[in-house]
Amino acid sequence: MRRILGVAAASLAAPFLLVTIVIVLGYLAEALEGGFYQPRLGWRIANALILYGVGAIIVFPIPLLVTALISGGLASLLEGLGFRSRLPFMAGGAVMGTALMLWITGNPGALWSGDYWPLFAGTMTLAALAGSLCGWIYWRIAIARTPENARAIEAE
Fold first, then answer.
1. What predicted TM-score, i.e. pTM, was given to this entire model?
2. Residue 152 pLDDT more than 80?
3. pLDDT one-digit tens code per residue, 47-85
4. Following DSSP, what letter does each residue of the chain receive, concatenated?
5. Can you give the residue ranges of every domain in the chain?
6. Contact of 103 with 71, CB cutoff 8 Å
């Protein structure tokens, strides 16, 4: 049950994490340029999280579901191989976050050409970071709180 809950929580958190990372980095970049004053900043952040976080879940349910199923299989494989550290799950999350973003963007080859490649590379990096955080969320829910030799029913 914890595995299913972990995959569901991580998958639903993914768009919100990506939007939060983009917002924070955007405001940090603006602050470095010297113009950080933002009236009604809380409302803008809330609107962005609702619009893009919930919007991604509504607009892209199939890619999110397929990615969640593949992530669940990858997590089961890692657990079956005996991994209990957070790093393999975070690395798997980074790969899955990047794969999901590549799937959503459609034709990544066209984005690498011309003037769009820095934006595309930045987007993939942020997707990997959000996916890594989702891998940590899964690990925290499904692995970290479960004793190593736990069994649902103990045989005598």
1. 0.71
2. no
3. 778 887 888 788 878 888 888 888 888 888 887 888 778
4. -HHHHHHHHHHHHHHHHHHHHHHHHHHHHHHHTT----TTHHHHHHHHIIIIIIHHHHH-HHHHHHHHHHHHHHHHHHHHTT--SHHHHHHHHHHHHHHHHHHHHS-HHHHHSGGGHHHHHHHHHHHHHHHHHHHHHHIIIIIITS-TT--SS---
5. 2-144
6. no
